[in-house]
Amino acid sequence: MLQLATLNAASQAEFTALLDGVYEHSPWIATRAWSLRPFATLAALKHALVQTVRDAGHENQLGLMRAHPELAGKATVAGTLTAESTSEQSRAGLAHCTPEEFARITQLNATYTARFGWPFILAVRGPRGVGLSRAQILATLQRRVDHPADFEFAESLRQIHRIAELRLNDKLGFEPELGNTVWDWCEQLAAHSEPAWAEKGELTTTYLTGAHRACAADIAAWMRDCGFDSVEIDAVGNVVGVYHGPDPHAPRLLTGSHYDTVRNAGKYDGRIGAFIPMACVRALHRAGKRLPFGLEVVAFAEEEGQRYKATFLGSGALVGGFNPQWLEQRDKDGISMREAMRHAGLPAELSAIAALRRDPAQYLGFVEVHIEQGPVLNALDLPLGIVTSINASIRLVGEIIGMASHAGTTPMATRRDAACAAAELALFLERRAAADGDSVGTMGLLEVPGGSINVVPGRCRFSLDLRAPTNAQRDRLRDDVLTELAAVCQRRGLRYTVEETMREAAAPSAPDWQRRWEAAVAALGLPLHRLPSGAGHDAMKLHTALPQAMLFVRGENAGISHNPLESSTADDLDLACAAFNHLLEQLATS
Ligand SMILES: [Zn+2]
Fold first, then answer.
1. Dist CA 342 CA 348 (whole Å)
2. How far apart are CA 320 and CA 338, in angstroms?
3. Angle of helix 149-172 relative to helix 99-116, nearest 10 degrees?
4. How far is ligand 1, taken at its centre, from the CA of residue 370, in Å?
5. C-alpha 266 – ligand 1 centre gap (Å)
6. Which of 18, 69, 75, 288 has the lowest tally of Cβ within 10 angstroms?
7. CB-based burial, 520-538: b 16+ in 10 Å, e otherwise
8. Phi-psi region for residue 78, left (φ > 0), alpha (ψ -120 to 50) or beta?
9. What is the pLDDT of residue 77?
10. Mean pLDDT of 122-146
């Protein structure tokens, strides 16, 4: 088996020869990456190869893509593929396509190549490394043939790096064991989906439904298997596992994330935040090791606010944030939260829920690992990112009121068009938010009530969702947008109303905890990338009581989330486990 030390000691020619076949017919990548030695870790070697391709420019990248064979193409049939490609394609069963599948792949391949100018490239061994099915491969080809060309160019390169990653793992005899465990748990937990969604093969697990309770039971059972000392399902349905230090009363590190999902969800959102620490505890327990502090892992029952309007219910309960009125709230079938809790065997009593509040003096802090749910890390080819702050947000709804009039007879100069004013505001928002670099602003609802094709819009309703890493930055954005709204309406002779419907403070990472994540990522041999979180997370709630910091894991498919295409590789999850372990070691030795 090839050793990293051998690669680090190799001459340029030896190095290139040792990495032959990692990148298809493209030895120049290894030749150039040689100068970046020594590599402290396999992850650092992988990153150096990726960086070499990033730095090589468009023409070289295109050449690399064109060096790849067509999937199930002529070369597959004629048996003229490289050894690596032959093994991968045959593992995916591509050598055994039915005539219909083969015809479909051939046709899609032809359309794809004609559109983009390079062959369809896919890491057919997939995110777990064990192979995609022919149906999955066909569905991916079908989906990607419609991508914009620049998007598909980037996706093809990412697939090439994933192929290289798996080939390197083989050469160096590396198995991402903890990552595989986490990936498999995500897959198994996703088997529990609410019936109407399960029928369509979709994942939906909302608060205290049958599927949700089955998840809690599985997580609790897996925690026991891992060797946690105590495992319980608490009064709001959180699954809580504690791995004691030498003294059960010593302060604990708190960690975790949610296991509920949105409708038609991905399998990784929230869940990896419980599974990654669980995998670490399992490894500790198997090695007979204890930490000098306790580790409390919570799989939060509710974060997404889907069945009841009670977002962050699970983590909120730990900081005294459970609103008593929620118990009376009814879902769309008329079932109150109190009834749902009783049905689930929970006490449904406020005293029991209030007792979940944690005493901050008993905890060192809170950390959360979460899939990024955005495209940043994927575009940078970085598996991990360090969160600087969970963005402050504010939501507003408004209406611009003009004058509805005949589209044919009203001259342009005398119109009072409410929709045009809203359009001006939308474009201002786009420019203004972009000017901050890390603010975001969205007008997600835009509607002309009772509008008609031949009527100048007399009313236009709109929403504003504004987010920024600090409260002050968010407030400046809001002030500028509202000033512009007033100015646009003044100039056009319109009235408006606007109302704030939601406001959340920023949750900046605690500097010493952010530094621990940074040290952990650096120890893996990976560059540090710091980024704010645009989405809300459980850490926002814990932030009110404890110092907190989050680690993001790259999402595949351009980081798409709240979507079944959300994905993560076992290798990236394994790096997240290693980072979590490193953070534990830092705490243990500090
Ligand atoms: Zn989440």
1. 6
2. 18
3. 120
4. 7
5. 10
6. 288
7. bbebbbbeebebbbbbbbb
8. alpha
9. 64
10. 94
DSSP assignment letter at 40: S
Ligand 1 centroid – CA 265 distance (Å)? 10
Q: Are 278 and 226 in contact (CB under 8 A)?
A: yes
**256, exposed or middle or buried, with CB in 10 Å at 0-12, 13-18, 19+?**
buried
Report the greatest alpha carbon distance in the chain.
84
Paired with 234 in beta bridges are none
Distance between CA atoms of residues 315 and 300, nearest Å: 6
Question: What's the pLDDT score for residue 78?
Answer: 66
Residue 57 is classified by DSSP as: -
Ligand 1 centre to CA of 305 (Å) is: 11
Distance 434 CA to ligand 1 centre (A): 25
Of 550, 541, 519, 212, which is closest to residue 371 (Cα–Cα)? 550
Helix (H) or strand (E) holding 590: none
Distances (CA, A) of 568 to 145, 304, 450, 555, 565: 22, 20, 44, 5, 10
Closest CA to 271 of 345, 218, 346, 344: 218
Tokens of 69: 């064979």
pLDDT (tens digit per residue) in 196-239: 999 999 999 999 999 999 999 999 999 999 999 999 999 999 99
Task: Give the DSSP per-residue string, 101-134.
Answer: HHHHHHHHHHHHHHHHSS-----TTTTTSS---H
CA of residue 493 to ligand 1 center, whole Å: 44
Q: What is the DSSP letter of 39?
A: P
And the tokens for 312?
């962050």
Q: Are 148 and 181 in contact (CB under 8 A)?
A: no
- Per-residue pLDDT reduced to its tens digit, 574-589: 999 999 999 999 999 9
CA-nearest of 386, 392, 391 to 370 is 386
Q: Which two tokens stand for residue 226?
A: 């891992």
CB 587 within 8 A of CB 255: no
Token reading at 314: 């699970």
Spacing, Cα 226 to ligand 1 middle (Å): 23
Structure-token pair, residue 84 = 């690596």
Cα–Cα distance, 340 to 337 (Å, whole number): 5
For 25-47, write each residue's pLDDT tens digit: 999 999 999 999 999 999 999 99
Alpha helices in 227-323 (DSSP H): 272-286, 313-316
pLDDT of residue 439: 95
Say if residues 455 and 404 touch (Cβ distance below 8 Å): yes
- Residue found under tokens 């205290």: 208
CA 177–ligand 1 middle distance (angstroms): 24
Q: Measure 1 CA to ligand 1 centroid, in angstroms.
A: 39
Label residues 57-72 b or e (16+ Cβ within 10 Å = b).
eeebbbebbebbbbbb
State the pTM of this model. 0.93
- In a 13 Å sphere around the CA of 6, the CA atoms on its Cβ side amount to 11
